[in-house]
């Protein structure tokens, strides 16, 4: 049977997805050239409300690199694992941020809307070798549990926007990441998680002839739930 793509956490108190090596080599190289060559401005310019006071980082000017950033969003949209996990309606253009020593982004919740985009699922694309900097872990609080992530360059993390989260202080080196938001066709996180788990069933059993009818019925249930819950 085929392995389930990506990693959907089995702990019922958290629901996130991790994908490794998500960017094509040419796009990753383009991003790396931009990180070295371009200037960054105060990250507070893109924060709202209480998050503005907690944000101490730098941010790349998005309008100067719209083509590259849109290409990153398109890579996410084209991944079957992202489709299964997030049921996306639209994937917003990411922002690239930089954390130098002493910088952090304190505990906060994301705004419900970024412009006209409703923020249902957040994503972070890690862009640095985790051994090249100390600190900088992405910490997420989810239903009474605390989780920390510091993933290899090119790895993607998706998680519900309703979870409180922070980036811990960087103490050595530089941390770069691309961050953005997804508007899902399913706005409720628990409903999205249920659909994502059901979508994994055909991936496990769909190629087994004796389970074909079950796979078809599961697919039918998935589509009926999307019609029932979808925007």
Task: Give a structural overview.
This protein has 231 residues and is α+β, with helices and mostly antiparallel strands. It has two domains: 7-184, Jelly Rolls (Sandwich); 189-229. It contains six helices and 18 strands. The protein has helices spanning 25-37, 50-54, 66-78, 80-86, 189-205, 212-229; strands at residues 7-8, 17-19, 40-42, 55-56, 58-60, 88-91, 95-99, 104-108, 113-114, 117-118, 121-126, 134-135, 138-142, 145-149, 156-160, 164-167, 170-172, 175-184. Strands 1, 2, 3, 5, 6, 7, 11, 15 and 18 form a nine-stranded antiparallel sheet that branches. The chain has a five-stranded antiparallel sheet with strand order 4-8-16-13-14. The chain is globular and about 55 Å long. Residues 1-14 have low confidence and may be disordered.
Q: What distance lies between the first and last C-alpha atoms, to the nearest angstrom?
A: 33 Å
CATH architecture of the largest domain: Sandwich
Q: What is the CATH H-level superfamily of the largest domain?
A: q2cbj1_9rhob like domain
Helix content: 25-40%
Contiguous runs where pLDDT drops below 50 for at least 5 residues: 1-14
The total domain count is: 2
What secondary-structure arrangement, pairings included, does this model have?
Elements: E1 7-8, E2 17-19, H1 25-37, E3 40-42, H2 50-54, E4 55-56, E5 58-60, H3 66-78, H4 80-86, E6 88-91, E7 95-99, E8 104-108, E9 113-114, E10 117-118, E11 121-126, E12 134-135, E13 138-142, E14 145-149, E15 156-160, E16 164-167, E17 170-172, E18 175-184, H5 189-205, H6 212-229
Antiparallel strand pairs: 1-2, 2-15, 3-5, 4-8, 5-7, 6-18, 7-18, 8-16, 9-10, 11-15, 11-18, 12-17, 13-14, 13-16
Domain Fe2OG dioxygenase: 90-184
Protein name: Fe2+-dependent dioxygenase
GO biological process, one term: intracellular iron ion homeostasis
């Amino acid at each position: 049977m085929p392995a389930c793509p990506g990693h959907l956490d089995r702990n019922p108190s958290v629901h996130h997805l991790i994908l490794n090596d998500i960017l094509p080599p040419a796009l990753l190289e383009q991003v790396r050239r931009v990180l070295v060559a371009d200037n960054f401005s105060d990250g507070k310019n893109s924060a709202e409300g209480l998050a503005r006071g907690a944000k101490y980082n730098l941010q790349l000017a998005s309008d100067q690199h719209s083509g590259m950033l849109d290409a990153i969003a398109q890579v996410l949209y084209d991944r079957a694992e992202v489709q299964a996990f997030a049921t996306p309606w639209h994937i917003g253009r990411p922002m690239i941020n930089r954390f130098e020593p002493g910088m952090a982004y304190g505990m906060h919740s994301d705004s419900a809307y970024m412009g006209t985009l409703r923020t249902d699922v957040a994503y972070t694309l890690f862009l640095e070798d985790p051994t090249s900097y100390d600190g900088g872990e992405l910490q997420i609080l989810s239903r009474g549990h605390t989780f920390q992530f510091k993933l290899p360059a090119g790895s993607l993390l998706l998680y519900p926007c309703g979870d409180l989260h922070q980036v811990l202080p960087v103490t050595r080196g530089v941390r770069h990441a691309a961050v953005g938001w997804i508007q899902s066709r399913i706005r409720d996180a628990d409903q999205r998680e249920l659909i994502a788990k059901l979508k994994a069933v055909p991936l496990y059993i769909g190629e087994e002839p004796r389970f074909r009818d079950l796979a078809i019925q599961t697919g039918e249930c998935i589509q009926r739930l999307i019609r029932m819950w979808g925007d």
